[in-house]
Each structure stands twice: as C-alpha cells, then as structure tokens.
Amino acid sequence: MPVIRTPDEKFHNLPDYPFNPRFADINGMRVHYVDEGAGEVVLCLHGEPSWSYLYRKMIPVMAKKCRVVAPDFIGFGKSDKFTRMEEYTYAMHRDTIIRLIEKLDIKGITIVVQDWGGLIGLRVVSVIPERFARLVIMNTGLPTGEGQMPEAFMQWRKFALQTPDLPIGAIIRGGTAINKNLPPEVIAAYDAPFPSPEYKAGAKAWPLMVPISQDDEAAPELKAAREFLKTWNKPALIMFSDGDPITRGGDKFFRALIPSAKDQPEIEIKRAGHFLQEDKGEEIAIHILDFIKRAPR
Known about the structure:
This protein is α/β, with parallel strands linked by helices. It contains 10 helices and 10 strands.
C-alpha cells in the first residue's frame, strides 16, 4: 500500500488560495482541509479531478457568515495519495469523510456537493443524517448501474482509462465555460497536487468507479442514498449549470427525488460548465448564504 505526499513547495504562491492548511489523521492517512470563518458549518466536497482549490472563490464569501470546511479527498490536493488505483475504493472515500466529520465533531452541516462530492457526500448524509441540516446539490448524480450513462461520460471514462498521464489542469479548463480565459497560473494550481503520473492514481480511478453495472461496488451505495433522499424533509437546494453535458438533466432528477426540494427556487447557473464553482463561484456562494438565511435550522 505505497503512500506518497505532494511536496509542500508545489503549493507555494497559488493564486487566490491564502488559506491556512489543516490536517487530520484518518486511518493512517493525512487528510487536508480548509477551515475558515465561524458560525454554521458549510462542508464543501469537490469532485474529479479537482481539489479544494475549486472552492477558493466561494470560501471567502461564505466565511464572512459561516464556518467553511473544504477537505481534499485522499488522492487529491494536499491529502496523502495511494500510488495504486486498486487502493481507491468507494468505501474508503465514504468512510474518510465520515471519520473527518466525526473527528471535527461538526453538526448542523450544510453540505455542498458537486461531481464525485455528490456520489460520496449524499451517501454520507444517509449514513449519519443527524449531522446534517441542509443539502446543496450541484452538477452531480446518483448512478446505480441501471440504464445508460451519457455518451459524454463514457467518452471521459475511456479517456481516463487509456491516458497514462492525465492532464489535470487541461481537464479542468475544458470543463469550464471560461476555458479560453482560464489563466495559466490557475491551470498550474490545479496541476500542483500531481507533479508526476504516480500521484494521479486517484484521479484515474474515480471515472472507473462510477457504476455502469449493478454489480459495481458503488451501485448499492448510491441506490441506498437514493432511497434515503426520498425521505429527506430538511431543506434542499438544487443548483445545476446550463453548460454541463455530463450532468445535464440531473437537476430535474433531484427535484423529483427529494420532497423538500420543491420548497426552494429552481436556480440555474447561467454560462457555467461542469466546474461551475470555477465559472461562477461568488454567485453560487451568495445563493448558498441566501438559502441558509431563508431556511433556518
């Protein structure tokens, strides 16, 4: 079980990421998280192949009124990384977030999820629901291996499988609506955690872990999350972008699935791609603060 750690110097002088690093030991792995502000807890979970840098535009806005916690999943950001893809399992990611929540002893959480942050985070909510007060769901899904996956996802899965050295920063750029204007230093910041291919095993593993068969490891987990969300009666805000070919239509799925979602406005983030936090981070943060204000615990 070889474990490596991205050298600290790779993270020096990242643009717009002044946050003090914090670390928790979870099952022998060092897990990094940002922890800014005070008040009600907003837990932000990133997806593939990003890290907490994706939330840098949102954290300062929300931290003025809330405590914002944004971890890096194992294999990403400043967290430790396995070098073998087989070490990355759905259960490992799920249990890591549960243990982090318990270690920080945070409660009354507003969870913000996107991409794999949703596939993991919404299952975590179903396991320890007493810790959560609100859901904010963005550009994600709960595939259970039934039905056909979007062609855009299958092409992405094939690319991840066949590409020995994933171009992380270029992938982020391609998943934004402002890709032509994404500065080189920002692309470099997304690349920073992954200085060579051995650091990218987690990024290569995640696309292959999305269930395309009911026999896949994550399929029963995500099915359980779906069943739980049918009973969720605390506040839920669904915000998808208008320019994501992979998760397009997912907003309608979640609004139909979660009973309380109909109590909130239908918000579409305009002119934003898959990584809507990169495109419209400040706007999204304001929507979340408004949501917390109008839906008190």
